[in-house]
Amino acid sequence: MRAKRLGRTELQLPVVGVGTAWIGVPTQNDTVFDTDDGRRRLDEELGVRTLVAAIDAGCTFFDTAVLYNRGLSEAMIGEALRQRPSAKEKITVTTKAGRWYDRYDFSYDAILRSVDESLERMGLSRLEIVYIHDAMGQPMAEVLSDRGALGALRHLQDQGIINYIGTAANNPPTNLEYIKTGEFDAAVIADSWSLINQIAEREIFAEAAKHDVGLVGATPLERGLLVTGPQENTKYLNRVFGQDCLDHVSKIQQLCGRYDVPMIAVALQWCTRYPQVASVIPGARLPEEAESSLAAAQVDIPAELWQELTPLLKHFDTSVDV
Protein backbone atom coordinates (compact mmCIF):
# COMPACT_ATOMS: atom_id res chain seq x y z
CA MET A 1 0.00 0.00 0.00
CA ARG A 2 1.16 3.53 -0.73
CA ALA A 3 2.60 5.39 2.26
CA LYS A 4 3.00 9.10 3.03
CA ARG A 5 5.16 11.01 5.47
CA LEU A 6 3.21 12.32 8.44
CA GLY A 7 4.02 16.02 8.56
CA ARG A 8 7.31 16.89 10.27
CA THR A 9 7.69 13.42 11.76
CA GLU A 10 9.81 10.61 10.39
CA LEU A 11 6.77 8.34 10.19
CA GLN A 12 5.63 6.88 6.89
CA LEU A 13 2.00 5.91 7.33
CA PRO A 14 -0.09 3.80 4.96
CA VAL A 15 -2.76 5.94 3.31
CA VAL A 16 -5.41 3.76 4.97
CA GLY A 17 -5.26 2.36 8.49
CA VAL A 18 -7.93 1.00 10.81
CA GLY A 19 -9.78 2.99 13.45
CA THR A 20 -10.94 0.96 16.42
CA ALA A 21 -13.78 2.91 18.01
CA TRP A 22 -16.31 0.35 16.71
CA ILE A 23 -14.23 -2.84 16.82
CA GLY A 24 -16.48 -5.78 17.70
CA VAL A 25 -19.76 -3.82 17.56
CA PRO A 26 -22.12 -6.29 15.83
CA THR A 27 -24.33 -3.99 13.74
CA GLN A 28 -24.25 -0.47 12.32
CA ASN A 29 -27.14 0.61 14.51
CA ASP A 30 -25.28 -0.60 17.62
CA THR A 31 -22.72 2.16 17.09
CA VAL A 32 -25.32 4.58 18.47
CA PHE A 33 -25.70 4.66 22.26
CA ASP A 34 -29.12 3.30 23.17
CA THR A 35 -28.62 2.00 26.71
CA ASP A 36 -29.07 3.98 29.90
CA ASP A 37 -25.43 3.69 30.96
CA GLY A 38 -24.03 4.56 27.54
CA ARG A 39 -22.67 1.10 26.78
CA ARG A 40 -22.65 -0.40 23.33
CA ARG A 41 -23.28 -4.03 22.54
CA LEU A 42 -19.83 -5.50 22.04
CA ASP A 43 -18.46 -8.88 21.01
CA GLU A 44 -14.81 -8.98 22.10
CA GLU A 45 -14.06 -12.18 20.20
CA LEU A 46 -15.45 -10.56 17.05
CA GLY A 47 -13.31 -7.51 17.70
CA VAL A 48 -10.13 -9.55 17.98
CA ARG A 49 -11.02 -11.46 14.80
CA THR A 50 -11.49 -8.13 13.03
CA LEU A 51 -8.07 -6.90 14.07
CA VAL A 52 -6.39 -10.18 13.17
CA ALA A 53 -8.11 -10.10 9.77
CA ALA A 54 -6.79 -6.57 9.26
CA ILE A 55 -3.25 -7.69 10.11
CA ASP A 56 -3.54 -10.64 7.75
CA ALA A 57 -4.79 -8.26 5.02
CA GLY A 58 -1.64 -6.17 5.40
CA CYS A 59 -2.75 -3.45 7.82
CA THR A 60 0.20 -1.59 9.37
CA PHE A 61 -1.62 1.16 11.27
CA PHE A 62 -4.11 0.95 14.15
CA ASP A 63 -5.54 4.02 15.85
CA THR A 64 -7.23 3.68 19.22
CA ALA A 65 -8.00 5.54 22.47
CA VAL A 66 -8.63 4.78 26.12
CA LEU A 67 -12.16 6.10 25.49
CA TYR A 68 -13.03 3.47 22.91
CA ASN A 69 -15.18 0.76 24.43
CA ARG A 70 -13.88 1.68 27.90
CA GLY A 71 -10.36 0.52 27.13
CA LEU A 72 -11.48 -2.73 25.54
CA SER A 73 -10.41 -1.61 22.06
CA GLU A 74 -6.85 -1.33 23.36
CA ALA A 75 -7.16 -4.70 25.08
CA MET A 76 -8.37 -6.27 21.84
CA ILE A 77 -5.39 -4.82 19.99
CA GLY A 78 -3.17 -6.41 22.64
CA GLU A 79 -4.79 -9.80 22.09
CA ALA A 80 -4.56 -9.51 18.30
CA LEU A 81 -0.85 -8.73 18.57
CA ARG A 82 -0.40 -11.75 20.85
CA GLN A 83 -2.03 -13.89 18.18
CA ARG A 84 0.14 -12.31 15.46
CA PRO A 85 3.39 -11.55 17.37
CA SER A 86 5.41 -10.83 14.22
CA ALA A 87 3.10 -7.88 13.50
CA LYS A 88 4.37 -5.96 16.55
CA GLU A 89 7.40 -4.74 14.64
CA LYS A 90 5.39 -3.77 11.57
CA ILE A 91 2.33 -2.01 12.95
CA THR A 92 2.20 1.61 14.05
CA VAL A 93 -0.19 1.93 16.98
CA THR A 94 -1.38 5.35 18.12
CA THR A 95 -3.61 6.11 21.08
CA LYS A 96 -5.17 9.07 22.88
CA ALA A 97 -5.30 10.29 26.46
CA GLY A 98 -7.30 12.75 28.52
CA ARG A 99 -10.83 11.55 27.87
CA TRP A 100 -12.34 8.50 29.53
CA TYR A 101 -15.88 7.22 29.04
CA ASP A 102 -17.00 8.94 32.26
CA ARG A 103 -14.68 11.93 32.66
CA TYR A 104 -12.09 14.30 31.26
CA ASP A 105 -8.75 14.68 33.02
CA PHE A 106 -5.82 16.48 31.39
CA SER A 107 -3.66 16.70 34.51
CA TYR A 108 -0.03 15.60 34.43
CA ASP A 109 -0.52 12.55 36.62
CA ALA A 110 -3.69 11.43 34.83
CA ILE A 111 -1.99 11.49 31.43
CA LEU A 112 1.01 9.52 32.71
CA ARG A 113 -1.32 6.96 34.26
CA SER A 114 -3.43 6.75 31.12
CA VAL A 115 -0.48 6.08 28.83
CA ASP A 116 0.96 3.50 31.22
CA GLU A 117 -2.36 1.65 31.34
CA SER A 118 -2.71 1.81 27.55
CA LEU A 119 0.74 0.27 27.08
CA GLU A 120 -0.12 -2.50 29.53
CA ARG A 121 -3.43 -3.29 27.80
CA MET A 122 -1.75 -3.50 24.40
CA GLY A 123 1.38 -5.30 25.58
CA LEU A 124 3.62 -2.58 24.17
CA SER A 125 6.65 -0.81 25.60
CA ARG A 126 6.38 2.35 23.51
CA LEU A 127 4.09 4.24 21.13
CA GLU A 128 4.75 6.35 18.08
CA ILE A 129 2.07 8.97 18.86
CA VAL A 130 -0.14 9.83 21.80
CA TYR A 131 -2.82 12.44 21.15
CA ILE A 132 -4.43 14.82 23.64
CA HIS A 133 -8.02 13.68 23.22
CA ASP A 134 -11.15 15.83 23.00
CA ALA A 135 -9.96 18.87 24.94
CA MET A 136 -13.12 20.78 24.03
CA GLY A 137 -14.05 23.34 26.65
CA GLN A 138 -10.90 22.75 28.69
CA PRO A 139 -8.63 25.62 29.82
CA MET A 140 -6.07 25.53 27.04
CA ALA A 141 -3.30 27.11 29.11
CA GLU A 142 -3.64 24.32 31.68
CA VAL A 143 -3.71 21.55 29.08
CA LEU A 144 -0.55 22.94 27.46
CA SER A 145 1.29 23.69 30.70
CA ASP A 146 4.31 21.85 32.05
CA ARG A 147 2.04 20.41 34.75
CA GLY A 148 -0.71 19.49 32.32
CA ALA A 149 -1.22 17.04 29.48
CA LEU A 150 1.43 18.46 27.19
CA GLY A 151 4.01 18.51 29.98
CA ALA A 152 3.31 14.86 30.74
CA LEU A 153 3.64 13.86 27.10
CA ARG A 154 6.88 15.83 26.76
CA HIS A 155 8.19 13.89 29.76
CA LEU A 156 7.26 10.58 28.12
CA GLN A 157 8.88 11.80 24.92
CA ASP A 158 12.11 12.57 26.78
CA GLN A 159 12.02 9.05 28.22
CA GLY A 160 11.62 7.50 24.77
CA ILE A 161 8.22 6.01 25.61
CA ILE A 162 6.51 8.02 22.89
CA ASN A 163 7.99 9.59 19.78
CA TYR A 164 5.46 12.23 18.80
CA ILE A 165 2.62 14.25 20.32
CA GLY A 166 -0.68 15.05 18.70
CA THR A 167 -4.10 16.60 19.13
CA ALA A 168 -7.32 14.77 18.36
CA ALA A 169 -10.78 16.25 18.81
CA ASN A 170 -14.23 15.54 17.45
CA ASN A 171 -14.65 19.30 17.31
CA PRO A 172 -12.89 20.99 14.36
CA PRO A 173 -12.51 24.43 16.03
CA THR A 174 -10.74 22.77 18.98
CA ASN A 175 -8.35 20.94 16.68
CA LEU A 176 -7.69 24.20 14.85
CA GLU A 177 -6.73 26.10 18.00
CA TYR A 178 -4.33 23.37 19.12
CA ILE A 179 -2.77 23.06 15.65
CA LYS A 180 -2.22 26.83 15.62
CA THR A 181 0.10 26.59 18.64
CA GLY A 182 2.74 24.75 16.62
CA GLU A 183 3.29 22.40 19.58
CA PHE A 184 1.93 19.30 17.88
CA ASP A 185 3.49 16.92 15.39
CA ALA A 186 0.20 15.43 14.23
CA ALA A 187 -3.56 15.82 14.47
CA VAL A 188 -6.47 13.46 13.99
CA ILE A 189 -9.15 15.54 12.29
CA ALA A 190 -12.66 14.17 12.72
CA ASP A 191 -15.85 15.65 11.24
CA SER A 192 -13.65 17.81 9.03
CA TRP A 193 -12.73 16.11 5.77
CA SER A 194 -14.76 13.86 3.49
CA LEU A 195 -16.54 13.98 0.17
CA ILE A 196 -19.39 15.80 1.89
CA ASN A 197 -17.50 17.74 4.58
CA GLN A 198 -14.82 20.27 3.63
CA ILE A 199 -14.43 22.16 6.92
CA ALA A 200 -10.69 21.44 6.96
CA GLU A 201 -10.19 23.63 3.89
CA ARG A 202 -11.30 26.74 5.77
CA GLU A 203 -8.34 27.03 8.18
CA ILE A 204 -7.12 23.65 9.40
CA PHE A 205 -5.12 22.84 6.27
CA ALA A 206 -3.42 26.22 6.15
CA GLU A 207 -2.37 26.07 9.81
CA ALA A 208 -1.25 22.46 9.50
CA ALA A 209 0.90 23.35 6.49
CA LYS A 210 2.34 26.39 8.33
CA HIS A 211 3.62 24.18 11.17
CA ASP A 212 4.02 21.00 9.09
CA VAL A 213 1.54 19.14 11.29
CA GLY A 214 0.74 15.74 9.82
CA LEU A 215 -2.97 15.06 9.49
CA VAL A 216 -4.86 11.79 9.90
CA GLY A 217 -8.44 11.87 8.69
CA ALA A 218 -11.09 10.29 10.89
CA THR A 219 -14.71 9.79 9.76
CA PRO A 220 -13.77 9.70 6.04
CA LEU A 221 -16.74 7.42 5.33
CA GLU A 222 -19.30 9.50 7.23
CA ARG A 223 -20.37 6.64 9.51
CA GLY A 224 -20.75 4.31 6.52
CA LEU A 225 -22.91 6.53 4.31
CA LEU A 226 -20.06 6.83 1.78
CA VAL A 227 -19.80 3.04 1.60
CA THR A 228 -23.38 1.95 1.09
CA GLY A 229 -25.09 5.13 -0.05
CA PRO A 230 -28.44 6.07 1.49
CA GLN A 231 -30.22 3.23 3.30
CA GLU A 232 -33.47 3.18 5.19
CA ASN A 233 -33.64 2.41 8.92
CA THR A 234 -29.95 3.09 9.45
CA LYS A 235 -28.67 5.06 12.44
CA TYR A 236 -25.60 7.28 12.22
CA LEU A 237 -23.82 8.43 15.37
CA ASN A 238 -23.75 12.23 15.68
CA ARG A 239 -24.98 12.77 12.13
CA VAL A 240 -28.09 14.26 10.58
CA PHE A 241 -28.16 13.71 6.84
CA GLY A 242 -30.79 15.83 5.11
CA GLN A 243 -32.48 14.63 1.95
CA ASP A 244 -30.41 17.04 -0.15
CA CYS A 245 -27.24 15.46 1.23
CA LEU A 246 -28.52 11.92 0.66
CA ASP A 247 -29.51 12.76 -2.91
CA HIS A 248 -26.05 14.23 -3.49
CA VAL A 249 -24.35 11.08 -2.18
CA SER A 250 -26.49 9.06 -4.58
CA LYS A 251 -25.10 11.15 -7.46
CA ILE A 252 -21.53 10.38 -6.33
CA GLN A 253 -22.47 6.70 -6.03
CA GLN A 254 -23.85 6.72 -9.57
CA LEU A 255 -20.65 8.32 -10.88
CA CYS A 256 -18.57 5.61 -9.22
CA GLY A 257 -20.88 2.97 -10.67
CA ARG A 258 -20.35 4.25 -14.20
CA TYR A 259 -16.63 3.60 -13.78
CA ASP A 260 -17.18 0.33 -11.90
CA VAL A 261 -15.25 1.71 -8.91
CA PRO A 262 -16.53 1.19 -5.35
CA MET A 263 -17.53 4.47 -3.70
CA ILE A 264 -15.51 3.48 -0.61
CA ALA A 265 -12.34 3.57 -2.72
CA VAL A 266 -13.11 7.05 -4.00
CA ALA A 267 -14.07 8.31 -0.53
CA LEU A 268 -10.88 7.06 1.11
CA GLN A 269 -8.41 7.88 -1.64
CA TRP A 270 -9.83 11.35 -2.22
CA CYS A 271 -9.04 12.34 1.37
CA THR A 272 -5.33 11.62 1.06
CA ARG A 273 -4.97 13.43 -2.28
CA TYR A 274 -4.45 16.56 -0.17
CA PRO A 275 -0.70 16.81 0.64
CA GLN A 276 -0.94 17.33 4.41
CA VAL A 277 -3.30 14.36 4.93
CA ALA A 278 -1.06 11.33 5.31
CA SER A 279 -3.65 8.70 6.18
CA VAL A 280 -7.28 8.01 6.96
CA ILE A 281 -8.57 5.67 9.66
CA PRO A 282 -12.03 4.37 8.76
CA GLY A 283 -13.57 2.56 11.69
CA ALA A 284 -14.10 -1.17 11.27
CA ARG A 285 -16.62 -3.25 13.22
CA LEU A 286 -16.20 -6.57 11.42
CA PRO A 287 -13.44 -8.43 9.55
CA GLU A 288 -15.03 -7.71 6.18
CA GLU A 289 -15.14 -3.98 6.91
CA ALA A 290 -11.44 -3.87 7.74
CA GLU A 291 -10.61 -5.94 4.67
CA SER A 292 -12.75 -3.81 2.33
CA SER A 293 -11.18 -0.55 3.53
CA LEU A 294 -7.66 -1.89 3.06
CA ALA A 295 -8.54 -3.24 -0.39
CA ALA A 296 -10.13 0.10 -1.34
CA ALA A 297 -6.80 1.84 -0.83
CA GLN A 298 -5.33 -0.14 -3.72
CA VAL A 299 -8.11 0.27 -6.29
CA ASP A 300 -6.97 2.03 -9.46
CA ILE A 301 -9.16 5.08 -10.02
CA PRO A 302 -9.22 6.62 -13.52
CA ALA A 303 -8.20 10.25 -13.86
CA GLU A 304 -11.48 10.87 -15.65
CA LEU A 305 -13.44 9.87 -12.56
CA TRP A 306 -11.52 12.38 -10.45
CA GLN A 307 -12.25 15.05 -13.03
CA GLU A 308 -15.97 14.30 -13.04
CA LEU A 309 -16.02 14.18 -9.25
CA THR A 310 -14.68 17.72 -8.82
CA PRO A 311 -17.97 19.53 -9.59
CA LEU A 312 -19.73 17.20 -7.11
CA LEU A 313 -17.56 18.18 -4.16
CA LYS A 314 -19.82 20.06 -1.79
CA HIS A 315 -19.96 20.77 1.94
CA PHE A 316 -22.97 19.77 4.01
CA ASP A 317 -23.43 20.60 7.69
CA THR A 318 -24.23 17.14 8.94
CA SER A 319 -22.25 16.77 12.18
CA VAL A 320 -23.97 17.04 15.55
CA ASP A 321 -21.81 18.58 18.29
CA VAL A 322 -21.19 16.35 21.30
Overall structural class, as computed from helix and strand content, comes to: alpha/beta
Q: Describe the global form.
A: globular
Supply the number of helical segments.
12
Overall mean pLDDT score? 94
Profile the largest sheet. 8 strands, parallel
The helicity comes to 25-40%
Task: Report the span from N to C terminus.
Answer: 34 Å
Strands in their spatial order, largest beta sheet: 3-4-5-6-7-8-9-10
Radius of gyration: 19 Å
Beta-strand residue fraction: 5-15%
Unreliable sequence segments: none
Number of strands: 10
Oligomeric state of shown chains: single chain
H-E order: EEEHEHEHEHHEHEHEHHHEHH
Structure description:
The protein is of the alpha/beta class. Helices cover 36% and strands 14% of the residues. It is built from twelve helices and ten strands. The strands form two sheets. The chain has an eight-stranded parallel beta sheet. Strands 1-2 form a two-stranded antiparallel ribbon. Strand 3, helix 1 and strand 4 form a beta-alpha-beta unit. Helix 1 runs parallel beside helix 11, helix 2 packs parallel to helix 3 and helix 10 crosses helix 11. The longest helix has 16 residues. The radius of gyration is 19 Å and the shape is globular. The chain starts with a strand and ends in a 13-residue tail after the last helix. The relative contact order is 0.16. The mean pLDDT is 94.
